[in-house]
Amino acid sequence: MGDAAEGSAGSARPAEVLRTPAFALFWSATTLRAFGTAIAGVAFQVLIVTVVGATPLQVSILSALSVVPYLFLGLIIGALMDRWRRQPTLVLTGIGRAVVLAAVPVLLLTDTLTFWSLAAVVLLLGILTLFADSAAQPLLPHLVARRSLVVANARLGQSATVAGTAGPALGGTLLTLLGPPALFVVEACLLSVSAVLQSRIRVWEKRAPKRGRGRHIGHEIAEGWRFTYRHPTLRPLALSVHTWFLAHSIVTTLFGVFTLRELGVTEWAFGLILAAGGIGGFVGALLAPRIGTRLGAGRAILLGRSITVVPWLALAVLPLTAATSLAILLPLLAAVQFVYALSQGIEDANEMGYRQAAAPDALQGRMNSTIRTVNRVVFFVGALLAGVLATLLGSHAAIGIAAVIFAVAALVIVVSPLRRARHDDDHAGAAAIG
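Now predict its structure.
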């Protein structure tokens, strides 16, 4: 952490992290980006269906393009973020995304928007988002003191939850009032304002040393991989979150189909069910700092992982069918989403805060990209596995298997040193590992 950042952040109490000027700007810029992303999601879905008229195969290709950058570029960009300055990267990617989104109304108004031009837009946005995500996580420890990392991540989690919940509704309203071309102009303006706010952050970042003779980016990627999976507490943390992502991919893939098709829940009720998840995530992020302080990082993450098992195990064993009354299904399924998102809110802030404190700055980008890239691969495999399990065994059994996998993710923490880890642990020796 730079001296200037430490000096400005170190005087702020963890509970008052938004009073730190640099973080307040970072939080504002990140929140605007989150709302822009949520609104854009609605707009793109409308374009795919109504303008492009994409076939099911083309829809799957567009969906895959949002993940492809993580699979093929995640490790490379993570290594670059340990050599490049993260602050200018966030500014430039914000401008880049604004320009890409601004191109969409031009394509619409000139009647040149096709499947392939839309695919190019989606791919470019995915690459720019990957750069931004890879820069944002390592930059945060430069903006706030280490003791404030959990609170800072909780604040970011709260705004992301609000954006993810309210953004689609806002996007739908704006789409109706303004139409697709004007909506994309609004999104481009949001990202432009976000880039301006980001550019106002003053932070010192140490320049990376020149590579030694014979070294290249492949060596640096391998170094980040070794650091992550040899570290006594980051290794079990990474293995636990990889396992969690496998189960997460199964339940997120099946929940909509199970609820709408097999249980016959109406669209309006399904919207309320998902909204309960937004509330749960917000409450979890509010509680995360206090839980992390009281229980320690490891036990707070373990609590979140353990809570995750409960709603999906209940959904697997309860005899719910299309004949079940909506008066029963609505509160029950809303509770499933609420508790699931609550558990994520508790563990996310504590997990990210601990990761950012445990890794030295020179390895932050590679450590985060290693975990993130493997998570994306696991999610891709899990989404395919979900379909196979549901076809062979039925949705109840597939969700039950996911609940067991969630339990394994918690068990990884129970039997590892991570269980005793605290946010105030001395990580001074971390740089020597790997």
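Residues 218-424 form a domain with the Growth Hormone; Chain: A; fold (CATH 1.20.1250.20).
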